[in-house]
């Protein structure tokens, strides 16, 4: 879905989009294809009129170990890749921010104040909501 690199798997479950970082052998550490894919993901998700919720997870035993050391080393010696990575990083952050902003409709635009009905929850398999 969304023509992503192998490092990102997007599945639809009704209005839910499940986004999986897919480098489990590297603890989903971010390499160039994963970083570029994340930069391209947000505009595509934003255009998906059937999507209402996005869940981001990681394949395997880790969500993400952060930056892949080999990728970071490559960035240090490649100014063009570094410049593109900085640009993609900006696209990732702004894309995520725009999606959060888009969920906040107001009665002025004919919607309901969805931010009053939305909850962001970071959970693990050991989370107990009763405590």
Key features of this structure:
globular, alpha+beta, 2-enoyl-CoA Hydratase, Chain A, domain 1, 131 residues
Layout of helices and strands:
Layout: E1 8-13, E2 16-21, H1 32-47, E3 53-58, H2 69-77, H3 79-102
Parallel strand pairs: 2-3
Antiparallel strand pairs: 1-2
Classified by CATH, the class is Alpha Beta
Largest sheet: 3 strands, mixed
| Fraction of residues in helix | 25-40%
The CATH architecture category equals: Alpha-Beta Complex
What Rg do the Cα atoms give? 17 Å
Strand content: 5-15%
Mean pLDDT: 82
Largest beta sheet: strand ordering = 1-2-3
- Assign the CATH topology: 2-enoyl-CoA Hydratase, Chain A, domain 1
**Poorly predicted regions:** 103-108, 111-123
Number of helical runs? 3
CATH superfamily: 2-enoyl-CoA Hydratase, Chain A, domain 1
What best-fitting shape do the alpha-carbon axes yield? Answer: globular
């Amino acid at each position: 879905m969304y023509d992503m690199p192998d490092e990102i798997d997007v599945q639809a479950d009704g209005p839910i989009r499940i986004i999986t970082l897919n480098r489990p052998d590297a603890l989903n550490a971010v390499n160039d294809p994963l970083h570029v894919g994340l930069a391209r993901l947000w505009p595509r998700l934003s255009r998906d009129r059937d999507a209402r919720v996005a869940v981001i997870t990681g394949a395997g035993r880790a969500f993400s170990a952060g930056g892949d050391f080999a990728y970071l080393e490559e960035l240090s010696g490649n100014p063009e890749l570094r410049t593109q990575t900085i640009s993609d990083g900006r696209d990732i952050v702004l894309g995520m921010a725009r999606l959060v902003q888009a969920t906040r409709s107001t009665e002025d635009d004919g919607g309901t104040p969805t931010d009053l009905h939305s909850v962001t929850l970071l959970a693990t398999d050991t989370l107990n909501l009763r405590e």
